[in-house]
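Lecture 7, part B: from sequences to assemblies.

Below are the input chains for today's worked example.
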Amino acid sequence: MRLLLVEDDIDLANGLRESLRNNGHSTDNVSTGKEGLLAIKSGDFDSVILDLGLPDIDGLDVLKEIKKIDSTFPVLILTAKDGIESKVRGLDLGADDYLAKPFNIEELFARLRVIERRLGTHVSSIITHNDVAIDTQAHTIAVNNLEQNFSRREYMIVKTLLENIGRIQSKEQLETQLYEWGEEVSSNTIEVHISNIRKKLPTNYIKTVRGVGYVVSKL
Ligand code: CA
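Predicted structure of the full complex, as structure tokens:
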């Protein structure tokens, strides 16, 4: 799930972003309501974690605007410890869930799993294509119904390719994915991973488009 984190406490935001990425959620963060709304309008995100205490716009007003853009867009609100009233108002305004600060990171992960399940059929946790099935919740890949051992980086590359079936992914795009997940990337990283991944997938599953990138084709 691609997450947007709207939080003006920079230390908290950085920590959360790292934890979320390590938990398999590609996460970007912004620190104002205005930036948050722009990011959501871009359509690049599946869900937002929204702090209610923002420097520019009241978080509840941001929430109202989000719901005007897309009434089904999943929103998890973060409230201050004593913010019971804003919590209730947030839920009334259509927030899916809330967490009161300080919260346990495992609790946040659990809430996000609920949102992921709610997104359900549209963003299924299992993508199956030509004998390969990737479970984006369990972070596993099965080939012909047999689970195969993929490293974290290999998993992320396969996931990106399968989320973009029929669309060529350039080496740079794949590198960006790894960066976003907090991985170090050197110049031949992608080639090496692709070569190892190919040994575990059906023959010719990932095609090389010379000079352009890699693709898992639709057929
Ligand atoms: Ca705040």
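Note for the exam: The mean pLDDT is 89. Keep this in mind when comparing with the next example.
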